[in-house]
């Protein structure tokens, strides 16, 4: 056996100024949102700033392209023994190493 569903349909609300039904949204002092703005009860809507269309490449375009003037495969050279010793000496003077 199936039971009928109770359908609680609210009565349509009407704007006190123009008499149009207000299907959703709050009534402000009995006025719909449009009439409330017209009568100065609520603040006027502020237009949202919009950006112009994008011109030029995007960041992803820049990442996909190789950088002009960048070397291809760069091999870093190894420090010489003299350079290692100079770095160790400088670090010891600054107190950066425990040795």
Keywords:
single chain, 99 residues, mainly alpha, two-stranded antiparallel ribbon, 3 helices, 2 strands, 26% helix, 4% strand, elongated
What topology does this entry show?
Blueprint: E1 13-14, E2 21-22, H1 33-38, H2 59-64, H3 81-94
Antiparallel strand pairs: 1-2
Please, could you describe this protein's structure?
It is a single chain. This protein has 99 residues and is mainly alpha-helical. It has a domain at 12-43. Helix content is 26%, strand content 4%. The chain is built from three helices and two strands. It has a two-stranded antiparallel sheet with strand order 1-2. β1 (13-14) and β2 form a beta hairpin. It is elongated.
Summed up:
The chain has 99 residues and is mainly alpha-helical. It contains three helices and two strands, in the order ββααα.
Q: How many E strands?
A: 2
User: Shape from CA axes?
Assistant: elongated
Roughly what fraction of the amino acids lie in strands? Answer: under 5%
Mean pLDDT: 80
Number of helices: 3
Specify the biggest β-sheet: 2 strands, antiparallel
Whole-Å distance between the termini? 89 Å
Spell the H/E element sequence: EEHHH
- The Rg value, from CA coordinates, equals 37 Å
Query: What structural class is derived from the secondary structure elements?
Result: mainly alpha
* Spatial strand order of the main sheet: 1-2
Fraction of helical residues: 25-40%
Low-confidence stretches: none
Quaternary structure: single chain
């Amino acid at each position: 056996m199936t039971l009928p569903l109770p359908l609680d349909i609210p009565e349509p609300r009407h704007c006190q100024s123009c008499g149009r039904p207000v299907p959703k949204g709050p009534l402000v002092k009995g006025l719909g949102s449009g009439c409330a703005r017209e009568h100065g009860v609520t603040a006027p809507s502020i237009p949202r700033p919009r950006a112009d269309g994008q011109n030029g490449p995007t960041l992803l375009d820049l990442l996909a392209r190789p950088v002009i003037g960048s070397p291809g495969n760069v091999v870093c050279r190894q420090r010489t023994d003299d350079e290692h010793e100079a770095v160790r000496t400088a670090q010891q003077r600054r107190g950066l190493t425990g040795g």
